Structure formats: C-alpha cells, structure tokens
C-alpha cells in the first residue's frame, strides 16, 4: 500500500510518503506562500521516483488553521485523491502527537483572530477530551486554571505559559504518517474533505454535550 | 546563520537545514544503500536553492550505529565542513530527544552484533545518566530490572519489552536541529569528527567512574 499525507494548517508544510520499500518525509517552513513551496516539495518527491498515480491512500490534515494554507493543501490532496481512499486528520491532534506518551493531557492552542485561539484537548494517548473550539485568550486562561497535569503546545502556547521548545508547536511528518496509518488500519476513510472550520466555544460544546446526555 | 545537520547512524537518513528565512527537513528510510540516497536527498536541498558553500555550521550525528552508514554521512559532512564550524551529536541522544519532557528516564537501545546492543541512558531533559556502552542483551536485561520509571526506545527496544510506536525508535530531523542549535548557542564546536565507536560495557564505565571519584 502506498500512502501520501500532507498538512498545511500551519506555516510548516509537512509531507509523508510510504510504500513497501521506503518512507520519505519532507517539511518546509518559511515566509513564502504555501502554493509555491508545496509545488517544490512535491517535485522533490518526483525526483525520488514517487509516482502520484500509484498512491492508494491520501491523508490530509484538515485544520483548524490558516484557511489559505489549508485550502492550498486540501486542493492539492483532493487533486491526487480521485479514485483513491482519503483519511482526514484534525491538525490539532497531529500537533498533540508530538507529546503523546508524556503522562499528561495535551492542550493544543493555535493563534486565531486577534485575542482568540483555536484549541483542543487530548489525553496522552490522543483520545479527545475537548474537541476543537475557538475561545478568547482571556476565557481559556480561566479554563486552564481549573485543570491539572497538562502541557500546552501549539503556536498559541505563549499566551498560557507554555515553555516547551518550539519544535513541539508544529506538525511532524512521522507523526502524521503514524496517525494516518492508524486510521487506515481501522478503515476510517472519508468521502469528502473540507477544512475544519471552528465556530464553537468551549461553553457551547459543553452545553451540547449536556443536552446529548439528556437526549440519550 | 546557516546550519546543515545530518544523521546516518540508522537506516533513516535525517537532514535538517535552517537559515534566517526557512527551515527544511528531509528523511529517507529504505532498503537501498545510504550512499545513493544521501546524494538524492542532498540534491533535493539544492533544488530548494540551498547553496552548501554558504553554510556556517555543519551538525553531524556521530553514532553509535552502523559504521558503514555513519561513514557515508560523516564523510559527506566533513566534505562540506572545510572552514566551517562543526557540532557533533551522539545519535543515542538524538533518539532520546523523541521522548524528552515525558517525565521518565529514556533508555536507548540499538541493535549491535548478534546478542548485543548499544545503549545509553538519559533523563527527560537529555542529561546523560549512562554514556553510550555496548552490552549483551542478557546483562542489560538484568540492569533494567533494577531501574524504575523509564521508557525504552531505539531499534533494540523489542528485546526489553519496549512497546512504543516505531516512530520513536529513529532520529527525527527537527530534534536534530534542536540539539545542534543548542550546542551552537553554547559554543560547543569540535575540531575533528569520528564515528563514536563504543567498546565499553556498563561495568567498565561504572568502574572508571568509581576510580575517577577516588582520584578526585
């Protein structure tokens, strides 16, 4: 089975390729636009004799993150994915994978519009504790005060006293491959891919959960 | 400052490049010989307009590991490093960086000759607890029985009940960059680079330590 996966939800383009003989990863993080750089990175794969038509599964990081960046990556992935299986990975979970097996819950925070962050919370095995949300920095600071035994990563970690090295804040291709291959094993494929566009606050998510429990 | 770093101590070629505008990483893990693949990976960097003559610092993973693989990488790095500064990183520490900040000590084990492993032990902040050694699987299993609160990674982890995903067992380019940049900040440059060739057992290392204490 041949797998190609990419994530363009942050300023770092992340690409993973695997077939029965080799695993190749590439990342590019710079100031230029994603469109141009993604082309160069993909050309590099071609130089390594990767034929995109042979791919069986396309894995895509669906955000939340920069909509412009996400659209570049998702469009490219969709172009490749005709007649192929598709796996969608939340980019917050992908960042959380940088700290899995750390014995702590993992709080992901990404810069959103002025004064706000996107966030999500996972346990050390990447089970979802709070699904992706958008929240003001002020409100989320208060939420974190109630929590214990967690680490904060992502490019919004600076607002919440996160002090881990910068390498934790951005997706890693090997962890993208790990997550995509887990979904392939489970047969978790999707028909359609769209950027994960988050509008709910933590309060709204909690409110819905409560009502779901009542309904059930 | 422009930094190029590589590690070829395992079956995974790991390359990291950074300048003031961008960070690029590449990895290639396959069955072919390192010589050919390293050339292709380096050509990819040239396609991204990286000029090797402009590099200020060359970082090198010095093993322990496959001597053939190490020689390919170290020769290449030395070829680049004329008139440049050199940073040397033990490849066991590089693998340990995959699990830093996990709240546990990190035991690295790499397959060596039949029945033996290379190993090293670090705390979660990558301070050295036991420097690289070679030991029989049997003896090292007994050593581990005396230890608490640790994780085992590296391609020898299977001998010692290590059950973390495979992605922990091989070097990662972003963590190579992190370690090299820390040495650059500290001004820890070296004049000569040779593969780390390990002949000492744990018993010998402990014996020497004891004598050093007596001398001091």
TrEMBL record, chains A, B:
Q: What is the lineage of its organism?
A: Bacteria, Thermotogati, Thermotogota, Thermotogae, Thermotogales
User: What Pfam family is a match for this entry?
Assistant: TsaD
By its UniProt entry, which NCBIfam families does this protein fall under? Answer: T6A_YeaZ
* Gcp-like domain location: 33-144
Q: Which residues cross the membrane?
A: none
Its domain of life reads Bacteria
Q: Any idea what this protein is called?
A: tRNA threonylcarbamoyl adenosine modification protein YeaZ
Question: Which GO biological process annotations does it have?
Answer: tRNA threonylcarbamoyladenosine modification
């Amino acid at each position: 089975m041949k797998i190609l996966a990419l994530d363009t939800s942050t300023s770092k383009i992340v690409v993973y390729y695997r077939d029965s003989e080799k695993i190749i990863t590439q990342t590019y993080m710079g100031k230029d636009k994603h469109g141009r750089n993604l082309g160069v990175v993909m050309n590099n794969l071609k130089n390594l004799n990767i034929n995109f038509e042979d791919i069986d599964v396309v894995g895509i990081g669906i955000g939340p993150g920069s909509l412009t960046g996400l659209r570049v990556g998702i469009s490219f992935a969709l172009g490749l994915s005709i007649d192929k299986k598709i796996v969608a990975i939340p980019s917050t979970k992908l960042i959380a994978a940088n700290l899995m097996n750390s014995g702590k819950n993992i709080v992901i925070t990404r810069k959103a519009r002025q004064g706000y962050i996107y966030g999500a919370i996972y346990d050390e095995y990447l089970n979802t504790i709070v699904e992706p949300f958008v929240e003001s920095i002020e409100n989320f600071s208060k939420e974190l005060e109630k929590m214990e035994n967690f680490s904060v990563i992502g490019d919004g970690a600076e607002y919440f006293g996160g002090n881990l090295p910068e390498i934790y804040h951005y997706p890693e291709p090997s962890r993208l491959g790990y997550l995509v291959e887990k979904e392939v094993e489970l047969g978790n494929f999707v028909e359609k891919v769209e950027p994960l566009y988050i509008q709910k606050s933590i309060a709204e998510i909690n409110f819905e959960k409560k009502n779901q429990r009542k309904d059930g």
